Amino acid sequence: MERYRSAAALIAARRPEKPVLALRPHAAGRAARWFAQNFDGDIAYAYKANASVFLIGALYGAGIRHFDVASLPEIEDAATIPDAELHFMHPVKARSAIRRAYELGVRSFALDSEDELNKILEETAGPDGNARDLLLFVRVSVPAINSLIPLEHKFGIAGEPATELLVKTRQAAAELGITFHVGSQTTTPDAYVHALKAVRELIVHAGVVLDRLDVGGGFPSRYANSQPASMDAFMVAIRDGVEELPVREDIRLMCEPGRSLVSEAESLIVRVDARRGRHLYINDGAYGTLFDAAHLGFVYPSRLVSRDVGRDATTAAFELWGPTCDSIDHMPGPFLLPDCIEEGDYIELGNVGAYGRALAGHFNGYGTYEEVILLDEPQMTMYEAEQQSTSSGTVHKLST
Ligand SMILES: Cc1ncc(COP(=O)(O)O)c(C=O)c1O
Fold first, then answer.
1. 89: Cβ below 6 Å to ligand 1?
2. CA-CA distance, 34 to 343, in Å (whole number)?
3. For ligand 1, atom 14: residue with the closest CA
4. Is 191's C-beta closer than 6 angstroms to any atom of ligand 1?
5. Ligand 1 closest atom vs CA 355
6. How far, in Å, from the CA of 216 to the mean position of ligand 1?
7. Between 61 and which of 50, 319, 353, 399 could a Cys-Cys bridge form, CB atoms 3.0 to 4.6 Å apart?
8. Residue 98: which CATH number?
């Protein structure tokens, strides 16, 4: 893969026909190292967020060995990673997927119903009866607070049924865990505070001994319209909440970050194919990498990279339209860009690494990209101090 100092250097060297996915593996490595230093437990990367081998390689280089996987195709991919420990955390699984996952060495499964518990036990049983090596996480439902993508309506169990399920699962599991997800892009730590309170009440009512606790994903990234609390604040909330739990001292913790590990590690570079007032028609969109910008209001940081217009250039707020003929291929933004932008210019949209390429399809024949590696820093970061030390040369590792 070709490497460039920056998106501007790429565009100066050649003007790509297709949209470009520009990877910054060093940013994924930095985020993983931050988690390793600040979270006292297993860090299971949520594979669905971005399965680029360059990013997985950077995460691996930074020590990530646990992976949260949601489907059989993800498991078949991730099972090729040396020493990988996979956690099949989708609470509803096909019987065939459970069976094959177990054959591939997966022992860790999530569930949120007695039916799913029975399915897992039936599909992993051997001639001598139930498997004795299962790590089973009961997924509990917790409120989404300041989260852009709540998940609690689809999955999770609460109240008396959760208590009963915990007791039944304890009887079947070699190790019992509780898992929850506060919703993706959660911008304040209160969600984790409330979730851990709910976990405390459940443990007390069920009277079960927990071996594991998985606080899920949901940790935020920075976007032009989202300035979350610091990552430290999330870790403090989790540490304090866990301390209040009636659990054994040596309970093993896990988290499942997706967005916060890879968001900053990818930019999208697009060309302006037409300008109509404050509307720019670009060569990728809602059916490509920009699904979340069209449907969930994400505003990625944006900059013009095909010309140097100087720092004092007047900026204006633009809406973006994707290349397909569909009118919902529209990213309202607002995206702040120099007012002089015109057809033929290129724009870098930053922090698209989480769920961007993962959601891209091929509608209207689009959805193919060039890929390059960029060596500069992302436009916005949650890991400011680490970025500064990397830039000033005190940290020399580039995990590419
Ligand atoms: C079970 C599970 N774990 C982890 C994640 C990753 O979440 P995030 O990218 O918000 O960290 C998701 C995302 O949907 C999920 O469903």
1. yes
2. 40
3. 184
4. no
5. 9
6. 7
7. 399
8. 3.20.20.10
Final residue in a domain of this structure, among 238, 262, 286: 262
Q: Whose CA is nearest to atom 7 of ligand 1?
A: 217
For 144-161, give one letter per residue: b (16+ CB within 10 A) or e: bbbbbebbbeebbbbeee
Q: Are residues 213 and 128 in the same domain?
A: yes
Asked if 7 and 32 sit in the same domain, the reply is no
Has residue 150 got a pLDDT over 90? no
Residue 271 has pLDDT above 50, yes or no: yes
Range(s) of the domain holding residue 304: 3-22+265-376
Q: Is the peptide bond preceding residue 334 cis, with omega within 30 degrees of 0?
A: yes
Specify if 394 maps to a domain: no
Do 198 and 317 share a domain, yes or no? no
pLDDT greater than 90 at residue 392:
no
Compute the chain's Rg from CA coordinates.
Answer: 22
Task: Clarify whether residues 161 and 100 are in a common domain.
Answer: yes
Task: For residue range 196-225, list pLDDT tens digits in order.
Answer: 999 999 999 999 999 999 999 999 999 999
Cα separation, 25 vs 55, in Å, equals: 5
Cβ–ligand 1 contact at 217 (below 6 Å): yes
Residues 142 and 284 in one domain: no
Residue 329 has pLDDT above 70, yes or no: yes
- Pairwise CA distance, residues 384 & 390, whole Å: 10
**CB-ligand 1 contact for 257 (6 Å cutoff):** yes
Q: pLDDT tier at 396 (50, 70, 90 boundaries)?
A: very low
Q: Is 112 in the pocket of ligand 1 (CB under 6 A)?
A: no
- Rounded to the nearest angstrom, the distance between the alpha carbon of 105 and the centre of ligand 1 is 22
CA of 70 to the centre of ligand 1 (A): 9
Spatial separation of the C-alpha atoms in residues 263 and 301, rounded to whole Å: 12
Q: Is 46 in the pocket of ligand 1 (CB under 6 A)?
A: yes
Tokens of 342: 């015109």
387 inside domain? no
* Whether residue 252 is found in the same domain as residue 274: no
In terms of domains, do 31 and 12 share one? no
Query: Whole-model pTM?
Result: 0.94
Judgement on whether residues 200 and 329 belong to the same structural domain of the protein: no
